[in-house]
Input
Amino acid sequence: MPRKNIIFAKYWKLALLSAIAFSPSVFIFQYYKTKTYHNAHDGSFAPYYPASTYTGIVTASKYVTSSDGTKLAVDFYLPADLGKDAKIPVILWQTFFWRSCEFRKYMATKDLPQIPEYFVKQGYAVVMADVRGYGASFGSRKDLLSYQTMKDSLCLVEWINKQPWSNQNIVTYGISVMGPIAERSAVHPSVKAVVPAWAPLDLYQDYFQPGGLPVKSVIDHLSDIGKALDANKAPGIIYPFIDRLRIKGARPVDADFDGKMLAEAINEHKINEPSHDTLRSYQYADNVEEFLGAGYSVHTDYKTYFRGINETITAVYAYSGWFDGGLSASAVKRYLLSASGKRKLILGPWGHGGAWSASPTSMGPSRFNHYAEFLRFFDYYAKGIDTGIQNEAPIHYFTMVEDKWKAADIWPPEADHRSYYFAEDNSLKTSKSDVNNAFDIYKVRFDVGSGASSRWDSLAGSGNVVYKDRTNINKKMLCYTSRPLAYDTEVTGHPRAVLYLKSTASDGAFYVYLEDLGPDGSVSLVTEGLLRGAPRKVKPSGPQQPLFLVNRSFKKEDMAKIGKNEIVELVIDLYPTSYLFKQGHSFRISIAGADKDHFDNLPKASPPALSVYRDKSFASKIIF
Output
């Protein structure tokens, strides 16, 4: 072997370890570093960049005992130059994904999490806790969001109130599945504000099984994460390869010198139920409610869910993006059910987490500083600082293509609604057909998919939302297209598709896409909706359901097969959007019976044939 190869073989391990040890630290906070430090604030509302109040930071960790005796691992961060008798407001953050990490000995680092450091310098104490059954916390996971997790949150709030540095003004936030955890602490009167960001409210309909169809990409992703965390391993989909080499696992609390308490906690995690695997097998909302545990309703009783929050008059900032899986709908429902006068809603051009703008005319890394916006909200409600937030409209939304932030006092904003009816020659017209028994036959194709960088991939943490030109995929779908528009037309709100159809199968999956057909023939996705055929029954809207959204139970008792030769009505709400169709462009509605990239085929055996009606008695249409 040549000498230079011998040297390389001898020292390649040392070189690799050196590269890892001295590379910039990312570890767990990579999860939100991409969402944090962007310099520009693309907003019609005031940017907020106050000067830092403090310069240094100190941290400590310990166990806090919950109401049932379970020990919860907690880190807390304080300003290093905080006066002896000073009391400051507190930010509480609870996580499934480890409050902090332990590095391998040969890669020790003193890096501090950047988010606590950001808030601490602004005059907050920051408390970060591992949820029971995760990280260094004891206990096990028998359900996702049980009543006990709310008790844990309240115990943490009580512990914070007793600390000498706390002024008992607490704010909290949670990203993704941590959002409902943060929300549950808001029933305590000391919690002044909460930001559930890119977070589910309706776990069944907006997260795991939108339209009654399990999102296999999301469920499989969460299952993989859960299995890794249960084994105290860094999940590959969250942590870059270099970080997985550096990280040993969840960090023990300060008093756990030999790691024995951490080992005991990890041992208790072994009996965690494989929750996400189980969710994929469930067909009805009844199953999921039973699985999630006592004290939590999936989506059928929002009013009860928010009663405690509203009674304490906690301020709620509902925060999401147009391509945030199905969670933009959760944000809308969360806003509408929160106490009037202390609620805000923001809907940006983002996927899950807000790091990426998916507007087709400004696609790329987001320049919106989300944590500065959190701070603006917190400073007003926890410190009483005039941040301008109290004087502006409660709703801000981003209109794509126009690429402009807009404000509104109500959602959806007032507008003149219009209907476009399916018509002959695959057209969309503003008037209903006057003929009888007119329909188009579409043979479902199981090779249709929405791509590997869709809203569902964003929700699964698999990258940025980038919908490619859909011209070719449209050839495999049933499409209806309007005439070119005579003037620029904005569509803002929740488009609704009403389909009348027959199917050769007793059940099926139905996907409806609103698209923008350009003069050059290019096709851009605007938004979409989906529905399984069996739970199509529409129920009267109750006080917990916004009147402009279709209300369905998704329970077993309301399931119904599609009868042979039966013409069924499918009312499908598309996810909210704000999009400017330019003059000369056309509306396009595309219908499919499969999305191979994210959902299992239904039925599984063979693709059915659909007869989509467009006559005077059964007038399929899209409503803007």
